[in-house]
């Protein structure tokens, strides 16, 4: 499966009278893609960044709704700890 490995916009679309929240790409959360190893890749500076989504869903007899959405930016680093281990760092 392919995905862009970079954050892309999210949006609310209306379909069949209902609003739908779409997240197209949250980028990388855990990744071995490093800027220094991606020569020639157009968007390489964005591959170490991602976003964590906080979505509050409320369910009632009337139906289920998304009550709140918050985006939290993150950054992926690869640090040596005896062996290499990718780690994500929230930026909030």
Automatic annotation (TrEMBL):
Protein name: CapA family protein
Pfam family, one: PGA_cap
InterPro entries cross-referenced by the UniProt entry: Capsule_synth_CapA, Metallo-depent_PP-like
SUPFAM superfamilies: Metallo-dependent phosphatases
Source organism, top-level taxon: Bacteria
Organism of provenance: Neisseria subflava
Transmembrane segments annotated in the record for this chain: none
Domain Capsule synthesis protein CapA positions: 1-33
């Amino acid at each position: 499966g392919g995905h862009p490995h970079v954050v892309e916009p999210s949006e609310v679309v209306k379909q069949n009278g209902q609003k739908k929240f779409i997240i197209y790409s949250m980028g990388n959360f855990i990744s071995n893609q490093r800027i220094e190893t991606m020569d020639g890749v157009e968007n390489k500076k964005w591959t170490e960044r991602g976003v964590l989504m906080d979505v509050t869903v409320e369910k009632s007899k009337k139906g289920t709704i998304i009550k709140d959405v918050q985006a939290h930016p993150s950054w992926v680093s690869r640090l040596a700890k005896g062996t290499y281990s990718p780690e994500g760092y929230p930026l909030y």
